[in-house]
Amino acid sequence: MAEEELPSGHGVDSSGGPVIDPTANVYALVRAESRRQDDLREKNQAHMREILAERDAREREVIAHAKEIRNLETQHAKEMRVQEAERINAVRTVDVQASQQQAADAETRAATLAKTVTDSAEALRNQVIQSQVAATAYVNTSLEPLKKDVAEVRQWQFEQQGRGSANVETKEDRRADSSSTWLVIGVIATAAVASFATLISLAGLILLLIRG
What we know:
The protein is mostly helical.
């Protein structure tokens, strides 16, 4: 007997219940998985955008900080240049004031020295004039007796000449006249030597005063 063909239809499970077709569930799971992958990609892209944005922000902060540092360095260098210029100007001012003070002190010392030299020269001139006056007075005083003796000798010679023209001189008178003449010459020579020595002493004193 030929096998009987069973009619086709819905499958059943062991309990005789109808078997549900899993195709719809599979499609649903596939769609859910796709959505999940899309969400992950979007989350990853958003996270990458956040990372890039944070990196850009940090780079901008670093650039701004570096720019601020450069500005601070520039400002500090400018302040240092200004302070250095002020220091150099202060040093130059002190040097100029010191030079001016030294010049003023030198002028004061020169004026004082010139006044001292002038006063010393004036005092020395007065001393020399006084010494010359004293020397002249001393010489005149020393030569006064000599002049008087010379006048007396001349008068005596005139008297002797007058007598000789009237009377014949004897040998004794000539010897006496000769002795008297030599005596007068000796007195004159002695007085002249004494006056010359006095003049030399006064000249030495004047030189000492001038050099002193």
